[in-house]
């Protein structure tokens, strides 16, 4: 399975809106009780920008979108949305692991927020994110590269005189 990202274009907007609605419907209904297409269209339109988003592809098939903000002191994973037909295949893990590798190289944290009832929080925890706070609607999470650096075994050299 080859997972990669490409820059979004204006032509991707309808695809991304459809993925947004398919991916978020269950979470929104669980957390808030109802789904409004008009409200979700507005949430999507307010957040979507082809200039800042990327389309996620799995074996050349569009399966989601992401918005990753590479800031000076952190990487903020603003959105990672995978179509339900492609969830639980390792696609989200692959994208997050790429982000974590970049954060490790830059020695900066990765931060994100996810809905309280979004099962994606389990993925983030499995990949080493820890909860740093909560709002009424979201879990705030962070991953620190220093906490996940490979441990180096330091061997002491013992010098003896003969």
Present the secondary structure layout.
Layout: E1 3-7, H1 13-32, H2 37-47, E2 54-58, E3 61-70, E4 75-82, H3 91-106, E5 110-115, H4 120-126, E6 130-134, E7 138-143
Parallel strand pairs: 4-5
Antiparallel strand pairs: 1-2, 2-3, 3-4, 5-7, 6-7
Commentary on this structure:
The protein has 162 residues and is of the alpha+beta class. It has a single domain, classed as Aminopeptidase (3-Layer(aba) Sandwich). Helix content is 33%, strand content 28%. It has a 7-stranded mixed β-sheet. It starts with a strand and ends in a 19-residue tail after the last strand.
Total domain count = 1
- Secondary-structure element pattern, one letter each: EHHEEEHEHEE
Query: Mean pLDDT, as a whole number?
Result: 91
Residue stretches low in confidence (pLDDT < 50, at least 5 long) are 151-162
Side by side, the strands of the main sheet go 1-2-3-4-5-7-6
Structural class: alpha+beta
| Extended strand count | 7
Percent range of helical residues:
25-40%
The CATH topology turns out to be: Aminopeptidase
Name given to the CATH homologous superfamily: Gcn5-related N-acetyltransferase (GNAT)
Q: What is the CATH top level name? A: Alpha Beta
Structural features:
162 residues, alpha+beta, Aminopeptidase, seven-stranded mixed beta sheet
Characterize this entry briefly.
The chain has 162 residues and is α+β, with helices and mostly antiparallel strands.
